[in-house]
Amino acid sequence: MPSLADLQAGMRHAVTSGDATALGTVLVGGRRAQGRLAIHQRHYEASLVTALLDRFPATGWLIGSALTMLVARAFVRAHPPVRPCIAEYGAEFPTVLAAHDPGATPPYLQQFAELEWHVGQVSIATSQPPLVWSQFVCVGAEVLLGVRLTLQPGLRYVHATWAIDDLMKIYLTGSAPDLFTLADGDTWIEIRGARGEVRFTRLDPATFLFRTALLVGLPLGDAAERALARDERFDAAQALIALVADDLVTAITPEAGVEA
Amino acid sequence: MSHWGATADASARRTPRSAGVGLRLSHLAEVVATRPPAAWFEIHPENFLANPHAGELLQEVAQHYPISVHTVGISIGSVEGIDRAHLARLRSLVDALDPVLVSGHLAWSTHEGAYLNDLLPLPFDDETLAVVVAHLTEVQEGLGRRYLVENPSSYVGFGSSTMTEAEFLCELVRRTGCSLLCDVSNVYLSARNMGYDPYRYIDALPIDAVHELHLGGFTSEPDEATPGGEVLIDTHSVGVAGPVWELYAYALRRFGRQPTLIEWDNDIPPFATLAAEATRAEEVASMTQKEARALAG
């Protein structure tokens, strides 16, 4: 009699691959119980493929639902979710999708699908009350460079080599023109969203690097250095003022051991 | 044995005995905006834990309706153990909502770090019992409250099982102090698929442990395992079937009036359709109570 661990390993293989031979004759139910495992296999695949198609509708619009579904099926077999919240499933799908048949799909497919992933994530975010400038004034100038800023949860920064935000706007507004030429070239995109709303803003590269560094938790001084390394004309004070004016900062954390 | 008595009693006092409705994301905004008449709502926490906006709306709903939390991601039957990170997230949601009931399934869904997004069957033997008892104890301690275990919808079983599903559930109740969620549709569906009597199954469950009932729709399809036969699939995509309403009335006679949930997870209709199913469940419960009073008096 197989152990519970062996049974579960066999069922996992059957559910993700459709091959139930490892379970031999241990199953009961109907005359040929292995056939009924197809119900679980089908549910696993259908529920996750549906989740992916729901998460990447714009990508399906771009390359067609047949190809999206084909790759989604392969993806769910090879990459089962690792968490039970299915809203968190699919971050790696753009990479797999773009690698499927690179010659037959647009060169910007991965970037566009990744943008869509971020759009989905920020659209279900909430927004927090922003800090106002007077709350910065009480931070001493000598410690200001060491503070870390918490930015709005519905913020993402995407560097693309195509103007994929323009394409996404066409999808989101349903306003496809008769002819559209997608521009290539570095594009620095800020995506801000909350409660179903999404907005794109193009940034200059230095501001993009500054805000990205703050979002990942670097101190203000380090974020400014990154921006200055990109563009020596970067004005950190103005960038900070703009960040606050855009209602993007929600908390200030002083450097450990230093009183703000 | 049961050290969750006080929590369970407090929850039971707040739990409506009437029929509630499964609250899915597609109805969330409507419920917040219109506050339709509903006795209570049951949610799948996994739909809200990774969706902060939905979580915010849910908090609003919880201010006006009793909430029951029905998890699909706590895999009490997985030999590899409970996902403690998920249990901790669930605990924070439970603390925030203070639900009247918290429940999950007698099933497994995780294996070596993969989440299989299905409720997979277990053999009913001593090894499984030891695994499920340990995990259920961990879940109840992790959540700080009694957990209700739901009977599964079954398409296959295991030749190695040494007890029936009902016997297994009775033993779980005895060893962990958990309660039971009797999904009447699952009883009917599993009995049809596996070839046993659904009424005898209901008879075999411990009366005092059943604190919630579920009703959901299923569909039938040709049975790959038995050419010419059919298998019932727990799709939750249609209304409750006639024979299940009859079995529900039988369950009410045995367990008394219990909070009953209408589940509808696929091809989700307008909210009013769910409310109508809940009304029908109320009518069946009222009729059953009247019959009981007539018999007693």
Features:
heterodimer; A: 260 residues; alpha+beta; 2 domains; three-stranded antiparallel sheet; two-stranded antiparallel sheet; 12 helices; 49% helix; elongated; B: 297 residues; alpha/beta; eight-stranded parallel beta barrel; 10 helices; 13 strands; 45% helix; 19% strand
What fraction of the residues of chain B are assigned to beta strands by DSSP?
15-25%
Overall radius of gyration of chain B: 18 Å
End-to-end separation of chain B: 37 Å
Q: Given the helix and strand composition of chain B, which structural class is it?
A: alpha/beta
Instruction: Give the integer mean of the pLDDT values of chain B.
Output: 94
What does this structure look like?
The complex is a heterodimer of chains A (260) and B (297). With 260 residues, chain A is of the alpha+beta class. Chain A folds into two domains: 7-21 and 31-105, no CATH class; 128-260, no CATH class. Chain A has helices at residues 4-17, 37-55, 57-63, 65-78, 93-100, 109-123, 134-137, 141-144, 164-173, 205-215, 220-230, 236-245, and strands at 27-28, 148-151, 155-162, 184-194, 197-202, 249-253. Chain A has a three-stranded antiparallel sheet, sandwiched between helices. In chain A, strands 2-6 form a two-stranded antiparallel sheet. In chain A, a hairpin with a 2-residue loop joins strand 4 (184-194) and strand 5. The longest helix of chain A has 19 residues, at 37-55. The radius of gyration of chain A is 24 Å and the shape is elongated. The model of chain A has no long low-confidence stretch (mean pLDDT 94). By secondary structure, chain B is α/β, with parallel strands linked by helices. Chain B contains ten helices and 13 strands. In chain B, the strands form three sheets. In chain B, strands 1-2-3-4-7-9-10-13 form an eight-stranded parallel beta barrel, surrounded by four helices. Chain B has a two-stranded antiparallel ribbon with strand order 5-6. In chain B, strand 2 (41-43), helix 3 and strand 3 form a beta-alpha-beta unit. The longest helix of chain B has 26 residues, at 271-296. The model of chain B has no long low-confidence stretch (mean pLDDT 94). Classes of the chains: A alpha+beta (260), B alpha/beta (297). Chains A and B meet through helix 1, strand 1 and helix 2 of A and helix 3, strand 5, strand 6, helix 5 and strand 8 of B.
